[in-house]
Queue: 4 jobs
Job 1
Amino acid sequence: MTYIKANNMTLVYPMVGANARGRHKVNVENGAVAQVGGQIIPMGKKGRGVRALNGIDLDLKPGARLGILGGNGSGKSTLLRVLGGMYKPTTGELNVEGRITGLFNLNLGISRESTGYENIILKGLMLGISREKIKEHAAEIAEFSELGEYINMPVHTYSSGMVMRLMFSTATSFKPEILLLDEWIGTGDRNFRAKVDERLNDLLTTALIVVIASHNRNRMAKWANTIIELDAGQGVQKPIEEFTA
Amino acid sequence: MSALTSAIADIAKGWKYRNFWQLLAWNDLKQRFRRSWLGVGWIMFAFTLFLGAKLAIFSQISQSDFNVFAVYLTVGFAAWRFILGSVIEGTNTFISAENWIKGESLPMSVHVYRSVCRSSLLALGTLPPVMIACWYFMDSYLMAWVSIPLVFITYLTTAFWVSMVLGSLCARVRDFTHLITTVMQIMFFLTPIIYEIEVLGPTAAKYMAYNPFVYYLDILRIPVLTGTIPWNSWIIVGCFTLAGVIAALSTFAFSRRKIVFWL
């Protein structure tokens, strides 16, 4: 069964090269804090780290629509990527069951020099799907994304909205069991946003977990059925009834 | 599961993604020659051109018969190109894969396979001129045909462990990328490729025993040139390979889950 279960999860980014030439020293001694971002903490002898997540618990079952809210640098994207398996939690536990697809930002998980079509092939092969099957998907993706002939042009010729269309259409066409989306997905034009909403609803009926990180409280209040609000990497998962936009 | 067993599991899992990394490696090459008329044909053309020029110049200072020197240079230069390619590509194994490492949850070994595949495809492009030169300039020996498959396996294994070790090292400490590029340029001149060891005289030739690249070239060059198997060189290469594989597994076990933070 598809599920996500996190227990007291913490993630610390090491600041690699914090002592390299030409870098300003990052002060932590006086408990210096910023208005945004995770807590900067000492690591090892001279190193520094950023505690981006601190003691996160999550429990998501099929049908869960989790909205991650929080200010800039509060840990939304980090939490998404930890759930996606890119970062391993520094401490605590994370158990994820299910085929995951994540859309984090427009430069990740895409080959900008390759054409849209080649990128679809890459994603399909990555999921272990045969080339014939991928070709069927490709036709459907080209149609849903409305990219038309652009599908045969290199991705670097696309506008960011077009890249988003390609990525979203591809990711959802291959029917993931867990879908992780960063808020930029809502940046499509009105026409495409309606299609995005429709497809997300379709996906949810096939017993899925969808997680979206966003700033848009009103939209989350309508869409999500559970919410976690992050502040400096901390937050508690609540049912939507306890959330006020 | 211990870090070592998960590292080995990662390598096994990465192999299952072969359709994916083969296509990525091929796209990398296509990208490199994008919008040129010759396309990937440049690999073969540039190699042949280089070889012709080197042959014209350095056959003058060689004491051997021209035909023998031609094969010596061709085979040695092709092997060097693969070694150099694997090392240089190896330093960038993870750095150049940043967008995939941060964007998808793939086994880390996928990026190592991709890097090795890319160097191998480049080497494949240099193979036709090498085969034509060997066929044209001298008769082939049975021992050469026997040892070539083994040499290829050894070279691939070497490319794999080198990518794993250097890829992790260079992702963590970026200075190594520059250091290794420089060292490899020096090593080209310190390795008998465009000249024969005999040209150097006895004192300098003695120091060649400390250059590991000599042994890697010997296992390919000597059977092709003389039809004998250089057992000593094989033993040394074998030891290096074993040590390299152990080093790679330990490095990979240590760094696998940390690399993403270093990019």
Job 2
Amino acid sequence: MDSKLLKPVLAVYVAAFILFLYGPFIVLGILSFQQGPEGGPQFPIIEWSTYWYRHLFGLTPPSRIAPLPVGEALLRSLTLAFMTMVTATVLGVMAAQAFRRRFKGAGIVFYLIVLGMMVPGVLTGLGTSLLANNVVGVERHWWTTAFVAHVVYTFPFAFLVMLAILNRFDGSVEEAAWSLGVSPARTFRKVTFPLIFPGVLSAMLFAFTLSFDEFPRTLFASGRDQTLPLAIYGTFSVEIHPNIFAFGVMTTLFSFSLLAIYGILMGLSVRRAKKIAMQEDIS
Amino acid sequence: MAYDLQLKNVGKVYDNGTPAVIDFNLDVEKGEFIAFLGPSGCGKSTTLRMISGFESVTTGDLLIRGQRVNDQPPEKRPTSMIFQNYALFPHMNVRQNVRFGLEVKGLPRDEADRKVDGILDKLGLLDISEMPTGRLSGGQRQRIALARSLVVEPDILLLDEPLGALDANLRKSIQNELKLLQRELGITFVFVTHAQSEALALSDRIIVMNAGRIEQISPPRELYTRPQSAFVARFIGSNTIIPGTVVTTAGQTITLDTPFGAISGTNRIDIAHTKGERMSIVLPAEAVELIPGETDESELRGRFGSNVIPCKIERLQVIGHIMQMLVRLENGDTINTEGHVDKYRGRLTVGAPAYVAWLPGGATMIA
């Protein structure tokens, strides 16, 4: 294609992409500074204020607008995301490790695992709760059925990340350790794991963020105590006030700080990975 | 005699049914330097990996110091392996790399430290012992791999193309070091390579492999001068193979009838061969003399018997002190020959007629 035409087209495309990606967040961010408590969730901004942020933390005088019932839900979601992250990452690492050797039925097992991220979430959620209620006899809770549904959903992501990492992993360092008389278990702890750690971090990030804002699976599977996305959705159905937006801004900032932690840890590992790369260049 | 390493009818068949190693028999004495030599895919690395325990043995028995180790995992075997890419632990510095194998041996801390220092010193690595391995040169990394493997005091050191990643000069110097080290330590070395010069320079015995089978087991000199099969003759050195039929057998010397008349060579395999049998004669490049065409042929026949063939000089090439010559026979075949430059300089011209000639003792008969 003519590059004279291609460049502007691509520029417009990227601009549109960025607009759709960040536009909602920017609108949300602006509206969160609406005047309170009378100001509504729409333009124009009557007067800039941090009222809704204070409202969020219960620092405003009582008004007709109830504080967001998110405190416990937030804690629940964080705990659930953490549990999911640990479980899915451990499973993902182990499964990917197993796939380094060809075994009978490897292809089928692969697709069975990956199915977890393909099937419609509502079905998984509904299915999990039906299974728990009617077959297994487990009560529906965010830490039982929803937890299982979350792990089933995030495990394939962790698995695929680890599969890609282990694909590039040079197994001869493990063989070298074994041949020195070091047991496979210790070799994994001391050699393999430190070297695949950047991948493990990525898998953890995937699992945590996916679980944290999971909606369709949790909707049916979480039982009576709601997770954060459900609690927020619940407030929508009554009336929308800018406190939701303030809360959205806060959670986004929280996500960014997670990303920052990830970035720092990754930076440390990448510096090490660069050394490895250099080593490979020489050899 | 107790052997350090024995392979008895060892075979390896991969899961998909491809045989990788077939009926491998070998006894290795303690302190021997053994080389597995062959083209890639001949099964030499697979055999090494079976000895180390990384590959399972399909058939036969693998014994280390008289003990059957077929079912022992690699970490339980008294072997240690050096990899072509060295496989150093990138997240550890030099000392940590070397110390890693000792940490599970349950040695007192100061004894382990002493051993690590000792081997670092021996291999000249003390100065860089606290450095990360990433920025070190190939030669240094090679030495770290050696130190790491030797510090755990294996009975057998396995080396998988350990010099393959080094440049030519470094390869030579590390070759020498390796040989000295092996002499000094008295450890059995099993060395895999596809470079004949390495195998010939380093080892006490060379096992030439082809398509999963052993072609020949010989000390280097013998392997070089007395190949036992056409494969070895083609793989080692620079040989010309001329087929023919047996005319006479006189002691060690067999005479063949060939398109170039009756020519003779040494029967190494010591089996009586009957008249009319198909055999070939192997002419090593350095055993063949090239003689300018103006020489009197009957005088040559006096010296070389019937082993004189007229030819035309096709190419002359001087590499250092060696003159490499290619000649074309009357039937279009070519023969490689070489010799010291001083012997040939100024006496030969490309395109001129000449003779190739050899003494029967220099040529080897193969079936």
Job 3
Amino acid sequence: MELQYWIWIAVGLSFSLYIGIAIWSRAGSTKEFYVAGGGVHPIANGMATAADWMSAASFISMAGIISFGGYDGSVYLMGWTGGYVLLALLLAPYLRKFGKFTVPDFIGDRYYSNTARSVAVFCALIVSFTYIAGQMRGVGVVFSRYLEVDIVTGVLIGMGIVLFYAVLGGMKGITYTQVAQYCVLIFAFMVPAIYISFLVTGNVIPQLGFGSSGADGVYLLDKLDGLHRELGFHEYTSGSKSMLDVFCITMALMVGTAGLPHVIVRFFTVKKVSDARKSAGWALLFIAILYTTAPAIAVFSRTNLIETVSNQPYEDMPEWFDKWETTGLLGFTDKNEDGLIQYTAEPTTNELTVDADIMVLANPEIAQLPNWVIALLAAGALAAALSTAAGLLLVISSAVSHDLLKKMVMPNISDKGELIAARIAATGAVCLAGYFGINPPGFVAATVALAFGLAASSFFPAILLGIFSKRINKEGAISGMLVGVTLMLFYMLKFKFGWFGGGTKADWWFGISPEGFGSIAMIANFVVTLIISSKTPAPSKDIQELVANIRKP
Amino acid sequence: MKKTYWKKNIRYITILLSLWFVVSFGCGILFVEQLNTIQIGGFKLGFWFAQQGSIFGFVAIIFTYIYLMNKLDQTQNK
């Protein structure tokens, strides 16, 4: 059957599944809308968290980024999984015990202050918006690449679907569609991976194939290191970044993960404290399936690519090479006009440009898999983008309807009124996200790092200290958050956007990149919070009791 | 009673977070070069920790904590 038919079938079926779930799980109260009624099974919540967490970037781009970075790519692998240990051990169980709806809820109540709440709402909105714009863009790109519609139509279709189930079902609808989306995306990711692993190494488990040898008996990683040396790249298994920078980026990503509001809020949806721990464990397990496979795919496709193209005549390139060349993801200019493809680290002689996304997208074709696998990949990429967008959407709408409206502007609003407000806010947020998806601001790519840095430098210290110390007061927490966020914004604007005089790599403080600076801003937040708190009066007895209470099982 | 519960919890957290640090920042970053001199199968050990081992370690750490805390919770209910 034609590839195009397969894609329409896969996408159509998965979309009708999501719509069916949305109709079945309409939200009737704010509790259902914000936290799915608080009765989600830990395994279901684990799957939903995994889908929520793994975005279009994890699905499409990560393997490619690792493939080009080698050891340097490890920061993403460790950074985006290690945060779940912090969540499970330090945050999730206590926030569940606290038993409210949102992250600003906790900050506002624990620090008995609407100023603290406002700072938290502000951070939650910035973090979520930078993220969601990228997701809607991802939806548009996948649509345009696979369904041959233009990006605007793609974004509009994506908006329609998300709008339908997020506005109708709130967290309840989102949770159960995310469970379905996880199943779609992991199946779509694993089928080509297993096939390619078997093809290259004869081992069906990619994690083991990764460390095996190819048909010539040489270990894949050793071969790849050798190829890299020949072509002038740094060795695949050792990095090019400084150790301190790798350390800081990994730390910022881990702590940022633990501080992201759309991840934290997922743990409000389970029944008990022990379920919050359990679902963090399941979530990481489900995420680990993809995250331990991605570096294996990276190695298979990197070796494949170099062996297929390096010093081979352009004439003899397989069919997929032409196809991806027309999309612009592959580019070849014959600089020395010898008809061969020279792929080297040196920009003046290198003749091949490769986009990182191709490593996952072209995999099925390179391995000559049947058409339905390619269709599956399209459905999987859409599932990854939509599930993350929906989770972020809910954080935005609850920040507006619950934290701003109910808690600060109109405390007397009825549950029904708040529910209507939440739906309107969600609709508004979808439209805004769609607008940014169609007209992406140039800073989207740069701001993903900012989102993690901001979450790390604002929420994480405030929540952590709020649980593990009774002595921290509102003066300390507010000034800590403000210092952390300001410092992070300053560094980001200076080195990513050229404000405040700009600067180059040579000017980085202690040689730390803007991506890793979240760690430093977080430490500044901790220090400021602790010093200011010790100089100002302790919180009241009620607050100390609140803290004692959330520590009880 | 409550005091010992919290104290035990803190002890579990401290031990498990040290392990968390060792498998990722320790083996995957700080001592990666030393560990890379050891090769197991096709993997250099430091590289393996950075791209595979640390993640398996994280999963194991969380499930250990779940097990320990469920046991501790039970002693509370008696």
Job 4
Amino acid sequence: MPDTSGSTASARVEITRAEVAHLATLARIDLSDAELDHLAPQLSVILESVASITGVAGDEVPPTSHPLPLTNVFRDDVVVPGLTPEQALAGAPEVEQQRFSVPRILGDEQ
Amino acid sequence: MSTVTLRSFEETLEKYDPALGLEVHVELNTESKMFCGCPTEFGAEPNTQVCPTCLGLPGAMPVVNRKAVESAIRIGLALNCQIAEWCRFARKNYFYPDMPKNFQTSQYDEPIAFDGWMDVEVGGETYRVEIERAHMEEDTGKSLHVGGATGRIHGADHSLVDYNRAGIPLIEIVTRPIVGAGAKAPEVAKAYVAQLRQLIIALGVSDARMDQGSIRADVNLSLAPTGADRLGTRTETKNVNSLRSVERAVRYEMQRHAAILDAGGTILQETRHWHEDTGITTSGREKSDAEDYRYFPEPDLVPVAPTREWVEELRATLPENPTQKRARLQAEWGFTDLEMRDTVGAGALALVEETIAAGATPQAARKWWLSELARRANDAGVEVAEVGVTPAQVAEVQRLVDAGTINDKLARQVFDGLIAGEGTPEEIVASRGLAVVSDDGALGAAVDKAIEANPDVAQKIRDGKVAAAGALIGSVMKEMRGQADAGRVRELILEKLS
């Protein structure tokens, strides 16, 4: 899997069909075999294009995750009003006992 | 649930060395959440402490709570950690309805505190527990599982989520593998969590209530054949929510692993759930694809770079180091090593300290907590701190003993009254009629009666055998139901028979 931490990067990035399938599973996207065949080479090209940026930066440019030279942006520990439960639950597909109702999470225990 | 075979603890230790790892989550007691201004009160009505940020609504932006960072640094310093000069938050990606954002904001390879240690004492021996890291993150929502057996996630029809807890600041403290504890492994695990909890209380950064989940422990355990220089496959047991359970869970997993390994099986690296009621663990999610979290730096938050001045300011706010404090108290109280160890071992150090502060002598404080009250706690199956008597009450009882109002034996009845909630020690002495009788009229009558009933003993005393007076004193005490001033009774007997 490509390293996204920004600590290392090489111009040559390849993403295999198996990696795309794995990522699709993690992202809960159902991809057919044909789609995997189609997408894997395309994603490689995209990643390679992005990786070419690292060729521009010399060794003296550290990798970064933020464009702004800011650190230590804090707020004081003070309570501010949020949403009412009605507002909070307004977008919920289903509500029960003032809680968000979600479909079953795990199947039966093996 | 399938039946699980266990090896006996002794058999397990004959063949294997346990390695422990503990991950303790501490919920901070900040007024507001980690990244938004929502309140953090425990037990509020569901979804009443939420806002667009902690609900993960589009466009909402997090801002870090300064107090939470300070608490994280103070915890790190108290655990002898290095404090990062620069670190970032990271997204831990997973699909699970307890985090509406589909990720938890945490820290990955840049924890705010790392490389620390804490010395843990078990039975007079000290184990150094190395701290790998302490990092900042946010708590998740609370799920209620509906339609299955006894509220469990497995077999539930659907789940109900309350996001009040989502976004409350958490510090996760992770140890390096603790090896070499052998048979003491369960106790070391318990002692570590207990001592960490005391430290958190001393720092004042959390309510530290295990029963309310403000301190939660995950117990990692693996076994390796005795003498092997590698670690075995580990399991991670979650939901261990009391000190006693930490010890039990380690012991249980050791015995379970040993049975599997002895039968030629392999340990599955997995998450397991501890069941307080039955004292067993069951398999949770398997560590597989489902736990590929794809961490990456949180783009919505800028790095945290604590200046060294800030770190030193926070270091100056640390409470006294527990080891030094213990040495200081021992010297002040004049306790022997054994007395001190027993006091600590009984979980009574803070109680004794408070009782002395309330006016009792060190020996009196120790005597009540370690004998009478420890025994009652043991009988009731609770910690001595939960026995139902406060340090101030113990000091008051001792004051009544010192004043001669009651004796040690009657004091035990005062403790009965205190535990039963009958009022203050003085009120209980009055309502139960426990005061010692030193009035010569009442005592004299009882002494006369005792002499009359024991003519042989009386004659011995008349003949100069003063030691025989003990039998008559006993007889008088019995007559007076223990409420006689024994010293005065002795004087009266000797006067009458001289």
